[in-house]
Amino acid sequence: MKHLFLSALILIGLTSCQIAGLTSGYSHLSDAQKKRVITLEENIDDIHDFSKVYKVGLNQVKQYIETHDKVLLYNYTPFCHSTYCVSPAALVSQCKDKGINVLVISNIYDDIFKQKHTTFPMLMINTKQFPTKWRAKYVEQFYFPLTGHTDKELNYASFHYFEKGKYVKSYKNSNDIWCSYHGRIKPP
User: CA-CA distances (angstroms) from residue 22 to 55, 137, 177?
Assistant: First the structure.
């Protein structure tokens, strides 16, 4: 009987835990945070309220890439503390000075509201457009049509650079991105 009780207690404990990272994490948001998540109906350029998180679709990102000369997409994971993860605000500021537009596109909701973003929109992959709830799969399905490469082929890079609507290169480490006075990214 003691083993049965202990097993039941462990099972209850395991089912009540939140496991971050496997899915979008939307269910982990508070009700107040969920109200700040908006499905974007217009173009990304039309966003002016940076206090919200905007769910964007693949076509909206493609349209943005096609209408701007230089675009860097940051596949952002808010809770990441790796040396490969950088502050979105710092990245946007650095590249803006060089004439490069940056789209910060989160791949998960966990900790998304901890980052201060008052000068740029915080975007989130609209996961409803993909037939999976698994983060690794919807991230792959989102970026593959943009870059033409799988995550594995890109060594799981988080920074994807485009010029004049065309994919140029992906970078795993933001230190490898070089924004010169011409605003060009270091060639491969």
Answer: 18, 10, 29
Distances in whole angstroms, Cα of residue 10 to Cα of each of 3, 15, 41, 126: 10, 9, 45, 35
The owner of tokens 């409803």 is 128
CA-based end-to-end distance of the chain:
65
Report the DSSP pairing between strands 122-125 and 166-171: unpaired
Q: Residue 98 has which token pair?
A: 């060089």
Tell me, what amino acid is at 155?
Answer: N
The three-class DSSP label of residue 89 is helix
Q: What is the mean pLDDT of each run of 10 residues along the chain (188 residues)?
A: 49 44 91 97 96 96 97 95 89 90 96 85 95 95 96 94 96 73 47
Dist CA 88 CA 116 (whole Å):
9
State the Cα–Cα distance between residues 54 and 61, nearest whole angstrom. Answer: 12
Beta strands in 22-82 (DSSP E): 37-39, 53-56, 70-76
> Within the chain, where are the H helices?
2-16, 31-35, 58-66, 88-96, 135-147
The token pair at 90 is: 């710092």
Separation CA 157–CA 168 (nearest Å): 13
